[in-house]
Design a protein that fits this description.
With 211 residues, the chain is α/β, with parallel strands linked by helices. Helices cover 46% and strands 16% of the residues.
């Protein structure tokens, strides 16, 4: 059974060799943060050797060179280790459809699996922060003054920023709508709610939540 509350999740981020596992792209780094009851309690970070040369664009974008990957463990052994870290927790990523397709592909290739559900912090942020200039992670970090070490496009740094965003969104739901102990599936539903209906949706949830 996965943890039901949105304040207990694994937030993850992949760096990859390209945009599509269907075209043979692989993960080259995974970073993840475990949040339990609204507090960061653990982290996971590992480079992964995809077994082929990474192009120059990806190396300069991520700061991950082939030399760094050559000595890293292969994708499948890292993925199996990550499956243990994830356990039965639900998962969060910024632009989750991207990370989910890579996680699904790497899990399949490693003969591993996970049982949690996914929520997308970007979709939720689009509903909660409709006045933000855009909903890229860097913009939201500035917009909400989130803690950051200034590093982007390394998996653990990006997962840390996403964690701070996720916790801030839960905080704002409590402040603005008196919603505490938010269920994970409410965040999933919020990410799918039409922008114009967000206020009504959350007001209704606040009214039906037990005091």
């Amino acid at each position: 059974m996965s943890h039901k509350n949105a304040d207990t999740v694994v937030v993850l981020d992949f760096e990859t060799t390209g945009l599509s596992p269907n075209l043979g792209d692989r993960a080259i780094e995974i970073g993840a943060v475990l949040i339990e009851n609204g507090r960061i309690t653990d982290r996971f970070q590992q480079l992964m050797n995809p077994g082929f040369l990474v192009n120059g664009f990806i190396s300069s974008y991520t700061g991950i060179s082939y030399a760094m990957l050559k000595s890293a463990p292969d994708c499948s052994s890292v993925t199996r280790e990550f499956a243990d870290f994830v356990g039965k927790y639900n998962l969060v990523a910024h632009n989750a459809s991207f990370d989910k397709k890579f996680l699904d592909n790497e899990m399949m290739m490693a003969g591993s699996a996970y049982s949690g559900a996914f929520a997308c912090s970007m979709l939720v942020a689009r509903r909660l922060y409709q006045n933000a200039p855009d909903h890229k992670m860097g913009t939201l970090v500035r917009y909400k003054r989130l803690p950051t070490d200034g590093v982007f496009h390394r998996a653990l740094a990006d997962a840390e920023m996403t964690s701070h965003l996720w916790l801030r969104m839960l905080e704002d739901l409590e402040k603005q709508y008196q919603l505490s102990d938010v269920p994970f599936n409410l965040m999933q539903k919020l990410g799918r709610t039409a922008k114009g209906s967000v206020y009504t949706f959350l007001q209704k949830k606040a009214r039906t939540e037990p005091a």
